[in-house]
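Course assignment 3, question 2. Fill in each field.
Student: A.L.
Task: Predict the tertiary structure for the chain below.
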Amino acid sequence: VTGARRRAAVRARRRPAMGARRAAAMDPSSHVTERDLRILAFVAEHRIVVSAHVQALIGVGESVAYGRLRALTKRGLLDYDRLLHGRPGWYQITRRGLAIIDSELPAPRLDLHCYRHDIGAAWTWLAASRGAFGRVERIVSEREMRSRDGVSAAAGGARGERAPDAGEEREPPYGVHLGGVGARGQIRLHYPDLLLIGPGGERVAVELELSAKGGRRLETILAGYGADPSISAVLYLAEKPAIQRGVRAAAARLGISDRVHVHPLAWAPRADPDAKRPPRTRSRGRAQNSPRTQDSHRAQNSPRTQDAHRAQDARRAQDSRRELAR
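Answer field:
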């Protein structure tokens, strides 16, 4: 009886410790390092990011970046998905991840049509943080600009007028007025892909132009920049020579060539080697329901295979980063 009581007492003493460990394992904020917080803050600024972005952000190798991203995904702070053939999978921050970093940004929305542009915008942010466009005091992403202006409107002010924080002077809105109102009666605003704020408060709008806009739309946007006194300059990063010529010509017609700067962008991601292989066709019916086919499907969805896909995504994204840096 004495031995049984001793064992019961030992179990009673262990039970709170085991509960604490279980609670710590369920708490997404446990074991989150300063580096993890930096990763989460970066991912929150963008709609989607890839592993190569994180490698460049914190200066680590592929395996370390994947380890941190996988840990954050398992804790529900990030989401991982891969839907486009031959393109790296992407990460998005979750509501739980936004809460960990105390961010007021909304959960990002996915638009596969903007996949390439969103990947390029994240690379542009990283380039700006390293001084590629000169000295900057702050880099404001499009998500933050839209959120700040939207919060100000919800607080009772006109949309596009940002309410100052306590002890802060009122800043001009981030959105550039295009004139007129939209279909729902709201003021028409345009947001650049990035806004660089210099040491003296000067603002430089950065536009990543991977596809050509219509002539009227382009002139409307440029006219909005020209009429906004808070914008010191506009930097267009254009991939195709035709787009570069179009932006320069529109700026010249509006008389703002001195404020609009166009730079070529060399970005040619390598094609997926698997995409060159012709698909193997098999007859439907028994082949799809055969044990061999079912085993193949199970293998494709196994954790080891998913890790292999993520490693392949990292190599493709790293190639894209190198081409963008040229």
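Instructor remarks: Residues 18-26, 270-288 have pLDDT under 50 and may be disordered. The radius of gyration is 25 Å.
Grade: pending
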